[in-house]
Amino acid sequence: MYLTRRKTGMMRKLKSNWQSIALTVVVLLSLFISWIVWTNPFPYEGARHESYSNNQSQYTPQSMGDVYLPTKAIETNKKGSQNQLHSPKANLILSVKRELESWKLGRTNVIKQNNSDVYLSYLRRRNSLMLTYPDEVPSSVFNETFSQSIDTDRVNQINHIVIPLNGQHEIYLLGDHHYSVYRVRVEKGNFSHIRRLLTSMEQIPVDHKIINGVAVMMYPHSFELPELGYQITAQNIDTLSASLMSTNQHTTITANKNGNETTYTDGTNRRLIYNRQNGTLKYENYLSKDDRESTSQIFSHFYNKLTAIGMPLDNLRYDEVSEQGRRLNYRAYVNSFPIFNSDGYGEVTLESTSSGNERYWLSLYSLQVPLPIDHQMVKLPSSTDVINQLHATNRMRDIKDLRVGYIWKSNSVNNHVVKLVPTYFIKYRGHWVEYTELEK
Question: Is the Cβ–Cβ distance between 435 and 423 less than 8 Å?
């Protein structure tokens, strides 16, 4: 009898508290699913960045310094062997940036210029970590990124930052133009913290050479990189066009359709051409010569433009500058490798001409989050093999650079999913081309 009354009482409690119990089960299930997502070891240089620290905190880049970060990290050991460092779980370069922000850099001296042999020796400096930009940046951008105040009159353009790991209280800034080497005194800085960041990183053997007058990072052996899957997101064309065409004046925006293109005009000096078929845009704003931005301010000016028009900056990085310094290209990166697409997806180009015209080329599409696909490994040949193949085509004289990156391949079944496939890209006659295209 007692057991029967007890069971009856328990049933009443369960019935009266069933909502609380169900809520508890849902919360526990949600926590379990979240744990699976956050411990899934997929490359995450997209919407969230993991810093290489004990607490593995997330960080979404928004500042100018984040967009203009170096994109490659190369460690040279005591014997002179070099390795490119990368990781799908941690953003090493972002972590080094945070360390350098707490340093105090002092006096800067010129060590050498116009000597390729000396320059190459610093690119291969033993027992060091080198951070490399994809193209040159002004020293003012270096100061902005790392919260420093080096002499911008003395140091012009920077391509590489060499950090000795043997306790020397100095770093070196290298500029490919004129093979410039600068020594910067470190008045305050903890090198041991930098050394600790390098553990548990994946490595690819590399080397540096001067090819056709340009310092190029080479891959002396064949190696493997995984294919990746990403979900993509598309900006709303109405929102984006409103951001690009908005002015302080009361103007009416008109839209005219012609085939696959829609042209937006405001009746004054702004025009936006939208290709509905491939989701690309070209924007033009005709300014007076007096209203154009100075070349020295182009990097900060274009960063402000990117934020003003609402471009996703999650994995977008500065990638190239024109010879005149008035055209900048930004590109999506994943795990320190650039992403290329023939339609310009994941890419933004901004230009301010000397006559005052501003032009932008961009796409609605950008990478959003990595997807749990079967990470098939792709074996890439050595740089030597690639160059030998290019020599056979008699095109070597028109080649200025070489890099490893990912090619963006659309999914014919699901247009919200793309596959990223690793391969070599060649700078051929001023344009990046997938290397097998030059073998045809």
Answer: yes
